[in-house]
């Protein structure tokens, strides 16, 4: 089975690296292309057996599964333009949330799936979000589910919660990284600790926290209860956080959902043009 990736930007590259590292796809079965070809060539320098093609046409023609990892507005243009190449026996996979699978099914004859990966998949961890098209063949459902089980926890998700699920799974690592960086900067500003030490301590704290949850020693609520002794220092810090956070996360979700709605509107207009 040949797997194609169109677009080797951040997520396209992470997807490729995860699939190879997890043993989901052999490099010799992978073919890639990118608008800026040197980006694709650099990946071949690392994974010598992959094939770099000069155009999406060659990738689509020679692949059984085609991951489209370009910008959302470009997906519609590319899919419309290359529609005759997406024959019935192939499977088209989009990795962007604003594009609904039924839109793709109206453009091509192939099976269509949306899979939203996460940067955590690079560590063979985290969740990947699945939405199958109504006409997607069972063979492709099973194949992709097995493939992504090697790099993540695959989860089929309803369209009504696709954005918030993406916020948690895909955007979440960036949000947590921002909060952690703010935590480190405050520690450096308010105490005598240096940035390198604070960063090392914070990174290893996050790794340890992840292991506690992974090994199911605690849930998030029970973990907080264990650390936050009544009348203790942690409790004082939690009290400040409760007082200061306000509607931070509510506003975050409002902002991401608004951006999502705006993108989906413009994409839908392009889809119908």
From TrEMBL:
HAMAP family: P5C_reductase. Pathway: Amino-acid biosynthesis; L-proline biosynthesis; L-proline from L-glutamate 5-semialdehyde: step 1/1. Residues 159-259 form the Pyrroline-5-carboxylate reductase dimerisation domain. The keyword Ion transport does not apply. Pfam families: F420_oxidored, P5CR_dimer. NCBIfam families: PRK07680.1. Transmembrane segments: none annotated. Residues 2-97 form the Pyrroline-5-carboxylate reductase catalytic N-terminal domain. Keywords: Amino-acid biosynthesis, Cytoplasm, NADP, Oxidoreductase, Proline biosynthesis. It is found in: Cytoplasm. Belongs to the pyrroline-5-carboxylate reductase family. Its EC number is 1.5.1.2. This is Pyrroline-5-carboxylate reductase. Catalyzes the reduction of 1-pyrroline-5-carboxylate (PCA) to L-proline. It catalyses: L-proline + NADP(+) = (S)-1-pyrroline-5-carboxylate + NADPH + 2 H(+); L-proline + NAD(+) = (S)-1-pyrroline-5-carboxylate + NADH + 2 H(+). InterPro entries: 6-PGluconate_DH-like_C_sf (IPR008927), NAD(P)-bd_dom_sf (IPR036291), P5C_Rdtase_cat_N (IPR028939), P5CR-like_CS (IPR053790), P5CR_dimer (IPR029036), Pyrroline-COOH_reductase (IPR000304).
